[in-house]
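hi!! sorry for the late reply, been swamped w classes. u asked for the two structures so here they r. pasted raw, havent cleaned anything up. first the sequence of the first protein and right below it the tokens
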Amino acid sequence: MKTWIWMTGGLIVWAFHFIGVYLISSVADVVATADDVRWRMAGLAFSGGCALLAATLLWAAVTQLRRRGSGFSDQVSAFGSAVSLIAVAWQALPTVIGH
């Protein structure tokens, strides 16, 4: 079980980010407007935290790859974390540009 969590950690961060940003924008749309600056900054802060977590997982996976060689679980973890980092940045882009 620990290996599966290690391998899918980045993808779990991506799913958590997707759900979190959706919830933030939904609540913002009910309370104020979805493009309100405070809610946008809350979404951006949440995205930054998720990106930092994905980058930390990517760093840990690459460090393990260098230390142990070419382990399959470390390669999958690095790939999933890299995909998560790119996806979080892509999903945060509308918040950054204001659309």
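now the second protein. again sequence first, tokens right under
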Amino acid sequence: MNGPLKRAALACLLMFGLLMINVNYLQAVKAEDLSADSRNVRNFYNRYEVERGRITAGDRVLAESVDTGGNKFRFQRRYPEGKVYAPVTGFFAPESVRDMEGAENDLLNGTSADLLIRRSIDLFTAKKTKGANVDLTINPKAQEAAYKALGASGRKGALVAIEPKTGAILAMVSIPTYDPNLLSKPDKATVNKAYNKLAKDEDQPLLDRAIERTYPPGSTFKVVTLAAYLESDDTVGPQTEVDAPQRLQLPNTTASLPNYGGAACGAGRVTLSYALEKSCNTPFAKIAMELGYDALSDQAKKFGIGGDPLEIPMGVAGSGIGPDVDKAALAQTAIGQRSNQMTPLQMAMIAAGIANNGVVMKPYLVNKIADAEGGEIDSASPQELSTAMSEDNAAKLREMMVNVVSKGTANAAQIPGVTVAGKTGTAETAPGKPAHAWFISFAPAEDPKVALALIVESGSAGDDASGGHTAAPIAKSVLEAVLGR
């Protein structure tokens, strides 16, 4: 080969090399920036070219893609019962996704590696690729009952219901909510206007209160304190007597801790069952100070509090009891105040763990996934998260929680012919402001099919809201829906 040909060949090789470097740079390094560029409309159109899979629960279609017949925007996402299920489905918008639409996006849009065989068959048969269908664990009757009861009279709050033996989430409601149909239109300007209006709403309808916000749990947390006490001594039981002063002097302070409303709790000494039935503060605060911070913290961790971040598959905000400050702070932590912060999902897990003989199951929302032709890709496999307490101690705590409903603060949750267990909570927020109203529960107590946690936010049910009068009746309607009463 003569000199000129060599130089030409080298120049060609060099240009090919530079071309390959540029292609790889654009695809691997700059791809995300280019796809986000407002001038690149192809990616925008492609989002609506694929028929996304359906999201279902039982016999209900919660999200589906509808063929519009349009040239630019072939499919549009539709949510038949949008507001009821919005905290679960989320939305599929021109430039974003959230909640289940986001967590399972690669399955719903057909790009998941799990769908490789299906895509290969579609390519061979010249069929349009479709996304996988995601079936959820949600019980529509429970979801709709919770939405109706909690959403009444302008209340704000959240409810989570779990199947204790598996961890399957049967209901997950957050109020106020929003209509995801307003955010699924293939029109950026329209969707951005709707989103900005929701984002600026002081009631925060886009916030999923069930898993994204934490609250002081109030007296519902007393079941964790009681679990720690039961686990510390096998001789402790429902009839064990404990000190119950009207006010408990807090160490190294001039302050004292009263019972709710300043009421007396028995005659100074009461059984554990009575203390839980009447939700006395001073016995549980004193028990916690005697046990110490480490014992309470360890018990909380056994229920999943402060452990590894949960995904259901959406991410869940972390719950925690706060730092070890001193015994005075610990006394307040033991009754669900101070720095104690819980998501409604976490409190539902606590109720479910007690119901399930002390075993806490990992919560989950996806029941099964199938391709567009119905072929199963994956299905739920329940997993144990932790053992929170022994079976014997769980039975003792279960007995005491039954008494809370049968003859204590939660009598509004009674269901004829069903043994209901529960614990009320009225959590202080700030001086001069109304309290949050909480209730955790499970039923039937002998063979629990459902456990739940419910919060009605401060002020949204009046200034005198309480766990017993405000939250328990709402929870009752959800228990009845699951149990078919």
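hope this helps!! also noticed smth abt the second:
The longest strand covers residues 60-67.
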